[in-house]
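Hi, here's the filled form for the chain we discussed.

Project: internal
Contact: R.S.
Residues: 396
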Amino acid sequence: MKDTKILDFVKKYTMIIVLILVLGFFAICTGGNILLPMNISSIISQNAYVFILATGMLLCILTGGNIDLSVGSVVCFTGAVGAIVMTKYNVPTILAIIIMLILGTAIGAFQAFWIAYVRIPPFIVTLAGMLIFRGLSNVVLDGLTVSIKEKTFFVNLFGGGANCYLPAVFTIGGLNGLCLVAGIAAAIVFVAMQLRTRTVRVKKNYEVESAIAFWCKTVLIAVVIIAASVQLARHKGIPSVLIWVLLVVLVYGYITSNTTTGRYFYAVGGNEKATKLSGINTNKVYFLAYTNMGFLAALAGMVTIARLTSAQPTYGQNYEMDAIGSCFIGGASAYGGIGTVPGVIIGAVLMGIINLGMSLMGVDQNMQKVVKGLVLLAAVIFDVVSKRGGKMISKD
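And the returned structure, exactly as it came back:
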């Protein structure tokens, strides 16, 4: 009985355990360099687009293991259009942002229509979208790089440039006071939310984890949040892009776990026919998932061109793979109906740590791709095999 509980605990928190082990491995191999304040900030800034795209990709995957292959191209296209309207046509920054968000949402709705109402497989529709919007990016940019360095407000707002950190306001022991206070406040809010969720589940007689497991997990995550804030406070403080990431994570985390709409995504992925018979419009669920993906791709496009202070026809390549990989590594099921936003973020952080750790170790770029591919394959194998009760081949 005790062994079963330990096994269940390990299975439930596999990704967290793996994350800790991987971080420890790279901390040893890099002589602790991966834990330097500058590198902690880099993990956030360089992987912000992954956090945003993976959150949207989760909704697509929940509907039945479906994916969106076009997001990298949509990121590039919306970023290209934004750069052109800001530089060539001198459109005000706020209006340019609105144009990019509307464009991304429209692209998502266009693809969602064929997927949801004509029932063309998502793989085919988004594969076509990947080619179409990559080509249009080249057309819009005329194959050239368009610099947006002079658009300082836009660049700083979305995480690029020298002033892409929130102002210190005050200091505590020579550290960024705002960052420290924000980190402590975030840890307290996290603990309070976890307690509230557990209390509600207990009152409704839902199954909950043991008190020891709950407090170990909650305290550990709270300590990690505070430790990360201390490291950021030692560097330059809170990157502005982190605000956008947190906003996306909190909003979509709430939607998927506390709203009727969120439950619809899980229901469709669990059993679409039964969901349809229960009166839920499954077409609208698909439409919402892919329209939303276009919206978040536009946001990721803004983050990308701001960080790189330019738009290029090659931007966004393999972004879809990073997003999909983060979802599956973070516990989303290849069959749909299973997955959480926090899990996806853990997957994205793990990918970011692997990327940065291998770069610090001087590992060849090609070998980095090999490692990332193996990690993704291992995550999906774990998901599939665990659903078969540990058997490699299911019984007919």
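Let me know if anything looks off before we file it.
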